[in-house]
Design brief:
By secondary structure, this protein is α/β, with parallel strands linked by helices. The protein is built from 6 helices and 7 strands, in the order H-H-E-H-E-E-H-E-H-E-H-E-E. The protein starts with 16 loop residues before the first helix and ends with a strand.
Length: 209
């Protein structure tokens, strides 16, 4: 008598439906992992930190050192005063200082007496200096022949602030952005030289006095 068997007909697979589903699940998991990795890589590329190009600011620091040496006839002591808002260091000011330090050994008669950071919180009106800032800049130059201010200039100064800056016996060199005060400060001899910060070019103004 014929008997029933479990043999599969010729040309058909003996793989169980459960095994087929397991293979399908593994393929889906692999695809999901690839998608997650791709999304993570895209997020990193879009949000990775941008590297700052500080080379122009280092070149600016070199130019400031050269000009300061000329102002002092290649002999004297210098105080550098970087402005720190909210106690946060500025990468740009650090780059200027780096270039300044690199150039200074070429002028052996000029020495860096001190770097005195001037810290203050953000002001309500960025067009004005915080109270006593002019006086603090003047005091920072005590005992030095030149003071280099690495910071902002206000749009205007009070009579008291002008008087405080005039008390500074050191020659004042300013490295800042453009300011409507520039012309009057240079003409009055309060600022002896100013360098305007720009990413592509270094602009310099000297006092006529």
């Amino acid at each position: 008598k014929p008997r029933l068997t479990n043999a599969s007909p010729p040309g058909t697979s003996s793989v169980s439906p459960r095994l087929v589903m397991e293979k399908k699940d593994r393929r889906l998991v692999g695809l999901a992992l690839l998608l997650l990795l791709g999304a993570g890589a895209l997020f990193w590329l879009q949000n990775r930190p941008t590297k700052l190009n500080l080379t122009p600011y280092e070149a600016l620091g070199i130019a400031v050192a050269e000009e300061t040496a000329k102002l002092l006839n290649q002999s004297g002591r210098v105080v550098v005063v970087p402005e720190l808002i909210e106690v946060a260091k500025s990468a740009y000011a650090d780059a200027v200082l780096k270039g300044f330090r690199a150039e200074l050994p070429k002028h052996p008669g000029v020495t860096l007496k001190e770097v005195r950071e001037l810290k203050h919180p953000p002001t309500d009106d960025p067009r004005q200096w915080p109270a006593e800032q002019a006086e603090l800049i003047a005091k920072a130059g005590a005992g030095a022949d030149a003071t280099i201010w690495l910071g902002t200039l206000p749009q205007s100064l009070t009579a008291a602030e002008v008087a405080a800056l005039k008390q500074n016996s050191a020659k004042l060199v300013v490295v800042s952005a453009q300011s409507p005060l520039l012309k009057s400060l240079l003409q009055g001899g309060i600022v002896r030289s100013q360098f305007l910060r720009d990413m592509t070019v270094i602009l310099q103004h000297r006092a006529t006095a």
